[in-house]
Design a protein that fits this description.
The chain is built from five helices and six strands, in the order E-H-E-E-E-H-E-E-H-H-H. It has about 140 residues and is an alpha+beta fold. Among the domains are: about 50 residues; about 50 residues, no CATH class. The longest helix has 17 residues.
Amino acid sequence: MYRRPGRQRLRRAGGQPGPRHRRRCGQGPRLLRALPPSFKVKKYPNSLNLTSPDSDLRIQLQTDPRYQEFINRAMKKDVLGYRLPVARIQDVLQGKIWAAEDETRRPSKRQKDLSDILRLLEVRKSLSSMLPLSLRKKLDYRA
């Protein structure tokens, strides 16, 4: 894994580097109070991003309550040597649909979400039934 010179990685128990984390929105305020002062917090409409100058660890807290059920349906998988909860492809697609339909987001972000939706549908055509008519038309998608 690439590491910039002079930067240390935060380590979890056992001395292993910590992975990127997603946490439930209800834990956000308590976590923010417990952060060391060196952590930087960037607030976005539906998330908080936490970084430390001393680490490559990136933490994203989803604050939109619609995403919280995804956590309950996630399956544990091995990812880069860690056993992590991974969202079901249906949930990833649903999140991308919400993001693409969110007119408050930057057009470039929404365009990326549309590309991600097409890639998900290429991998799993059966998911096309989840696609709203408005996005079908925008994507010129025919299952």
